[in-house]
Amino acid sequence: MYSTLAAPRTGNWLTKVPAITATFWVIKVLSTTIGETFADYLAVNVGLGPLVTDALMITVLAVALVIQLRTRKYTPWIYWLCVVLVSIVGTQITDFFTDTLGVSLYLSTGVFAVVLAVVFFLWHRQEGTLAITSIDTPRREGFYWGAILTTFALGTAAGDLATEALSLGFRNGTLIFGGLILLTWLAFRAGAGQVLTFWIAYVLTRPLGASLGDLLTQSKDFGGLNLGASTTSLLFFAVILILVAREQILANRYGVAAKGDGPLGGRRADFTWAAAGAVLIAAVGLGLSSTHAATTSTDTVAAEPAATTGASGGPGAPAAPVAKQPKPTTRLGNLSAFATITADLQAMVAKNDLAGGKKRAKDLEVSWDDAEAGLKPRDSGKWHQLDDQIDGVLTSLRAGNPTQADCAANLSTLKATLDQFDGV
Description:
Elements: H1 22-45, H2 49-70, H3 76-100, H4 105-127, H5 138-165, H6 169-189, H7 194-217, H8 229-258, H9 267-303, H10 336-350, H11 354-370, H12 372-375, H13 380-397, H14 404-421
């Protein structure tokens, strides 16, 4: 899955896709995480909602694809912009079927696999080849982007199925999907078909990127590194920007087929740049994670009283034993943060401060969305039950004419469920 898939030197100005190299795969994996995180940011943090976000991203993707299709040669920044946008829309398609229509992940995974097979069948029937090196006509490029979009939808469904329905979690997901890609590469090296191994790896990079992103963003309570979505997105974006800028320079100087043969390029240089990007992400991620952990530990110690009083209450009395927090007894673990926000909302609604409750509900929505990757694989059924109840709270508070009774009833139901499912 490397240089043998590169376009031939003759006529390479017509080739509209990059050569398949190490930097290609690194950018592809990072683009997946950027796409998913950005869509969630617009829908939840900015407050556009899923429908507006979906419509906006589809429109932007259509414009980007028009630009891509009108270009006469491979232009890295346009190509990778399209990949990021296709990643967003492909994810949104799967989420629409799963979250809005309630379609089973087993069914959606099967359906998208069939759709991808149909795209490949029609592509091969019309063009006689599925080779990545032959994307040099408008029709072939149309089939190519149709396949790319379907692989993202399939990768999202298959990845969610593995991490949620099979309870793998993002840590295991990172290892498993990374291992499957390694096996695919070994199969390619052993003589397996180049086209087959490329598309298998392309599908697998979607769940790998999502699992890797969740590993970096999720709280340490859920097994992540606690970098947060914003920090992770900025880190990934910086690496993508550097690698794509290098791709653009090399494409301008040497063309897509040569892939940088010359003073700045070559296979060894490509591996070096790809490895440097991966090492940079690992080093910065672990460094920031350690810093966050140290800061949290210091804040915890500072928050503890310097001295405690005994039964007599006098100075120097023996310190009373500090009760240890019990370990979680449910699969979802500690839900106290969500219960605290819910209690705040109940107090506001009790005072009929529905406007204040609507603002505070944003904190519940954002924190719940941020914790999804960590909580959902632990117990999908309980997570969905809480998710539906939180949606009910948000809907009642954000209604055109919210009523105190409806808001109070939904909050009471949610608080009772949180207390029941809380693991501490």
